[in-house]
Amino acid sequence: MAESVKYRKVYVGVELSVSPQGDVRPRTIIFEDGNKYQIDRLRQKCRAHATKVGGTGIRYTVIICNKETYLYEDDGRWFVEAKDIGG
Amino acid sequence: MERTILHCDMNNFYASVECMLDMSLKGKAVAVGGDVENRHGIILAKNYEAKKYGVQTGEALWQARQKCRNLVIVPPHYEQYIKYSKLARQIYAEYTDLVEPYGMDECWLDVSGSIGIYGDGEKIANKIRERMKFELGLTISAGVSFNKIFAKLGSDMKKPDAVTVISKDSFREQIWQLPASDLLGVGRATQKVLTLYGIKTIGDLANASPDLIERRLGKCGLMCIRYAKGEDISRVMPTDFEPPVKSVGHGITAKQDLENPAEVWNIMLSLTQDIGHKLRVYGKRAGGVQIDIRNNQLRHKQWQCRLSNRTNSSAIIAKTAFELFVKNYKWEYPIRSVTVRAINLHSAIEAEQLDFFGNAEETAKRERLETAIEKIRDRFGKHSIQPATLYRDIKMPNDREVELTMPTGLII
Q: How many Å lie between the alpha carbon of A48 and the closest alpha carbon of chain B?
């Protein structure tokens, strides 16, 4: 039987580009293990509740390696909802 | 033109924020509890699961634990509550500029001008409700009506995550059978008087004799009748409106009970340091002093007196407060909490009729001294200079860093 997937909030490093108008665009996510993930596309940006790990923030819907995922920015810190493999 | 007013109430606000931030609390009975060390060990808020066990706001933590063994009690995070209160108000502000807060978790919105753009009141309320859930992970209950009182009543009728409309055509059938105490403005004392005359429901109140009510309850009684009839015409104030300051007060619950006058004096002196500062910031002078003393049996009493000269001096306010205390307190029980308020505020630049035998000169001298002290504090910090006695442990609780604004009276 499939076990329900657990998620945890992981704060990540993010490389950004900022336009002269002040628009912020995340380009790369630097995960806690040091791995870098290139963001291929930014699909949507809105304020949203992180339903899997709690908290809220500006939610960026991003495409990384053909997979859609969410990246949140809250008070200057960035986080993702990471699958908790250990748990 | 008929107004459309919304009252949005964030359900179990403190507890909901805690559960939203920490998903591991989901489905558990959760309460936010004050700091036991500082003797604020009471339930400040609870979620619906805890409510099922009969946990009540205001009861001691140990009482709540007796009712619900698995109750998870978390400490309050006021900075988060303020943050989410602000974010909620940002959402409201997208629908109207008339947003009047009533405490941290409630707001009135006058959306009469936005109906052409967003649809009727119910539609707007539902939009806001959905957005709150999606964007902040919090639920609200909203009341939609043609005045503030009924909007507030509506938001209490269906909870959580719901909208109640009370229209001009149907309010009699909808709410007149509800208890009079559900109406904003009818508190415990008013309800007691009303019950004496057989006035139990909002409908009874609406049809009561104004003469009788005025005789027993004065102006406020007449106001309650108007509320019950749906004749409230008070405005929803704009977002940037700041209500005039009517009093400046500061109160604490001591770390341990206060046993003698000297200990009370220290606390009063400490409290009035902030009061003097705030009066200067607001550009006000006090014409009177009020104290509120609660003993360790949790019974409290209030006394007030006039000042011979208006002042913003911490020392004079402290001295007057202490004299008032010594004159009136009988020391039947030790004291748990002390509040000092500067009342009858006047603008600091307003001319004052001096008393021929008063000591205005002394007051002015004292104020000059305290202005100098204030300057030192501005430069070197709040605790850089203060009365020597306050450097000792005077049973003051540890500072609560976040200031909270609690609901003020509705009648303006």
A: 4
